[in-house]
UniProtKB/TrEMBL annotation:
Pfam families: YccF. The keyword Transmembrane helix applies. This is YccF domain-containing protein. GO terms for cellular component: plasma membrane. The chain crosses the membrane at residues 7-24, 30-50, 62-81, 87-106. It comes from Streptomyces alkaliphilus. Keywords: Membrane, Transmembrane, Transmembrane helix. It comes from the Bacteria. Residues 4-53, 68-118 form the Inner membrane component domain. The keyword Thylakoid does not apply.
Length: 132
């Protein structure tokens, strides 16, 4: 089922969202000082292409620099990307068939707001809290 959802996502939303993240990543890498945000954009582009079966979680080694970088990202780009995800989610929620895609857009909002200090992992690889 994930494969079918990912293929449909790719056609209806994934390519456009990934292109947006790729453009932002290239611009960030050209500006040298914003390379960490560019790398985060490239990770988000891959996640935007194929979101079903993956989830984002907080990295255990993220520090203060990630927090400060996320605040800068939130002000400069995070709000705009999030608005894009919200608008797309509302558009998908209008149709019954599009509800899973709307949920996927909502799932991407936290990582689009604050991408530094997060990693994208397969859903099957996520351990329960307290599990080892």
């Amino acid at each position: 089922m994930r494969l079918v959802l990912n293929i449909l996502w790719l056609i209806f939303s994934g390519v456009w969202m990934a292109l947006g993240y790729l453009v932002a990543g290239v611009i960030c890498c050209i500006l040298i000082i914003t390379i960490p945000w560019g790398i985060a954009c490239f990770r988000l582009a891959v996640y935007a292409l194929w979101p079903f079966g993956y989830t984002a979680r907080q990295r255990s080694d993220a520090g203060v620099a990630s927090g400060v970088g996320n605040v800068v990202w939130l002000i400069v780009a995070g709000i705009w990307i999030t608005i894009g995800h919200v608008v797309a989610a509302v558009g998908f929620f209008v149709t019954i068939i599009g509800i899973p895609f709307g949920i996927a857009h909502l799932k991407m909002i936290p990582i689009s707001l604050m991408p530094l200090g997060r990693e994208i992992v397969p859903t099957d690889g996520v351990l329960a809290v307290g599990a080892r």
